[in-house]
């Protein structure tokens, strides 16, 4: 690895019980960049993010983050060292208000006392300011996605793992989210590992991509080499 890489996975295997899902995954995320993982339903994309986060154990292989081996760290420690996870389906707490949901993200900081950079969050997602007191469960899918991102941003992450942010949301909000993700990288130097099946969304954003198939990386390349036609072909097999 080089100091340019924030996350490096080598030959990572993971399983649910006896059922192996990741069969030796290799990939890297460069600091301050957006790396996208594409691939059909059920190939192991979410499993990979959960494995990075420590929600599923690494059964073989290595994971390093900022040069440290992290494969055996529990999820709360990973959160404290700056890995933020936005799960597929967003997992907003429906009975808490928007503000309370955002505050939950602070818990990842542990004893580190940080002021909630509320104004910064609202500058990125103005709708959350208007809906501050609304219940999370009453937001649209797109607004919940913005809330899920806000909740992770207050934990001050260096790396965000983002699982299918555009699933079930309107194109106009997807566009807004894409702009926020780009500015997080460019202006704050945050690195993003994005799982995304929408090729158009991914290709406008990503610096580097991987295409995953049955628990392994099948293709990879920088954005110039990303050929939507080829990806579509693989997605349709
Ligand atoms: N909790 C679980 N226990 C056992 N098997 C699981 C569990 N969760 C997922 N799987 C299986 O692991 C495989 C990979 O699932 P995963 O959710 O990682 O795929 P994915 O690429 O994220 O799919 P999608 O695009 O639909 O989100 C699938 O065969 C799935 O059925
Ligand atoms: Mg998934």
Quick description:
With 237 residues, this protein is α/β, with parallel strands linked by helices.
Q: Can you walk me through this structure?
A:
This protein is of the alpha/beta class and 237 residues long. It has one domain (5-90, 157-236): Rossmann fold. The chain contains nine helices and ten strands. It has helices spanning 45-53, 75-80, 98-104, 118-124, 126-130, 141-153, 171-188, 199-205, 228-236, and strands spanning 5-16, 19-30, 34-38, 60-65, 68-69, 83-86, 159-163, 191-195, 208-213, 216-222. The chain has a six-stranded mixed sheet, with helices on both faces. β7, α7 (171-188) and β8 (191-195) form a beta-alpha-beta unit. The longest helix is centred in the C-terminal third of the chain and has 18 residues, at 171-188. The model has no long low-confidence stretch (mean pLDDT 93). It binds adenosine-5'-triphosphate and magnesium ion. Magnesium ion binds next to α1. Adenosine-5'-triphosphate binds next to β2 and α1.
């Amino acid at each position: 690895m080089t100091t340019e890489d924030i996350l490096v996975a080598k030959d990572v295997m993971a399983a649910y019980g006896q059922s192996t899902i990741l069969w030796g995954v290799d990939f890297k995320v460069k600091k301050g960049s957006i790396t996208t993982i594409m691939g059909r339903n059920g190939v192991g994309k979410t499993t990979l993010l959960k494995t990075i986060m420590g929600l599923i154990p690494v059964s073989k292989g290595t994971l390093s983050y900022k040069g440290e081996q992290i494969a055996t760290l529990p999820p709360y420690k990973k959160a404290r060292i700056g890995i933020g996870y936005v799960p597929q389906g967003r997992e907003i707490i429906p009975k808490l208000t928007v503000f309370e949901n955002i505050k939950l993200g602070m818990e990842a900081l542990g004893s580190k006392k940080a002021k909630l950079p509320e104004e910064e969050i609202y500058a990125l997602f103005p709708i959350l300011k208007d809906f501050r007191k609304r219940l999370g469960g009453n937001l649209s899918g797109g607004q919940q996605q913005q809330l899920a991102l806000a909740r992770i941003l207050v934990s001050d992450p260096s790396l965000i793992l983002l699982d299918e942010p555009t699933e079930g949301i309107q194109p106009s909000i997807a566009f807004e989210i894409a702009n926020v993700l780009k500015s997080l990288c460019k202006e704050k130097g945050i690195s993003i590992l994005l799982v995304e099946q929408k090729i158009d969304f991914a290709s406008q954003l990503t610096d580097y991509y991987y295409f995953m198939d049955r628990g392994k990386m099948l293709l990879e390349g920088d954005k110039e080499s990303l050929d939507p036609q080829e990806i579509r072909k693989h997605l349709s097999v």
